[in-house]
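[Meeting: bench + compute handoff]

Bench side (C.D.) handed over the final construct sequence. Compute side (W.E.) agreed to return the predicted structure before the next meeting so the bench team could plan truncations. Sequence as handed over:
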Amino acid sequence: MPKSSGTIEGPLSWRAALLTLAILSVSYGSPLLAVVGLRDMQAALHTDRSVLSLASALVWIGNGAGGVPMGWLADRIGIRRTVMLGAVMMAAGLALSSLGTVWALLVGHGLFIGFLGNGAIYAPLIVYVSRWFDRRRGTAIALISSGQYIAGMIWPSLIGYGIARYGWQTAMLAYGGVVLALILPMLALLRPAPEPVVTSGVQAGLLARGRVLGMAPNVTMGLICLAGFLCCVPMALPASHLVAFCGDIGIADGAAMVSVLTACAFLSRQFWGAFADRFGGLRTVMAGSAFQMLAIGAFMLTRNEAGLFAVSAAFGLGFSGIIPAYSVAIRDLYPSKEASWRIPTVLFTAMSGMAFGSWYAGLLVDLFGSYQPAFASGVVFNLANLIVVLFLISYPMRRGGASLTVVARWIILARRWSTLRPRL
């Protein structure tokens, strides 16, 4: 039975969050092998860059698509077994990708590293941690999502060294061993999530009326998914192509630039988490997306090394809070029992945007021989995202949803007063 009062947060909540952060810091190193080794792999496989970009794209698609059934599976067999499956499949995908053929690379990345690997790790762990928090959920989700950026700080330089010294195929095999050696022992520490606290906040009022943000619940969900896709198309450009972009214009420190970007993303993500706790998930998406659009535009105008380091840092500061904010928005608007499929569905559409953006940028480079058209199209996609998010935020006000929010706030204040009155 759900708890009827108090809070579920405590020391065990933060222990679960930090453990999840450590797991994601390892699992998100796997896709970086294809990013750091893109030029070496292109030379070895004698293929177009768009084909190799497809490998990164398939990781994102697989990650998002796999999260939906794996979220369902985690509710039935437990989070430990689900994450164990993901770690084993990820190692198998790296081994398959190291065979040195295009088909092995695509299947290894899309099916094993993406769908069965990170698909069984990322979304189920996001849902898992969201159930440990009810007051500082935004801060917690932002923290664990920073595992991607910790991976970006730690692994690119090590992977680059391994590729330069031993070759990209050996580096992939070695990282598969790292995944198993680091993730599997941590699974023994994962505990089942607590029962949710029953509240009578905005969620209950909205669901009782069959509306979310003034619309049918699944219509609102569809618009949130569309927004996620649109903002992740430009997000994928630096994430998948920054090293190659730097190499094309004669800058050798592309891997270090990725580390700077991800370090700034990690630091700012904690700010965005607190921002989401105060202002809500959708407003956090809007603010981060606006910042991201400015940074993507700046990539079009910068060619010197110092300038690109500065723009990369600015991009990391801006975009880092967007994806966790979508998960916060879903938990703000929908009940906990629906999180195991709603959060992975939103993440799937967002990662589909990452996949499309990664592949599309590679295609534009093959067609035009430059990253300028890719960055320009990224600005357009980002602007479309801002339009959708602004509609979601403003629509309830035009439909009378603002009055519902005011009533809900008065209900929350009344409940807090009733709990304090016996102490006075």
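W.E. noted at the follow-up: Residues 217-248 form the longest helix (32 residues). C.D. will use this when planning the next construct.
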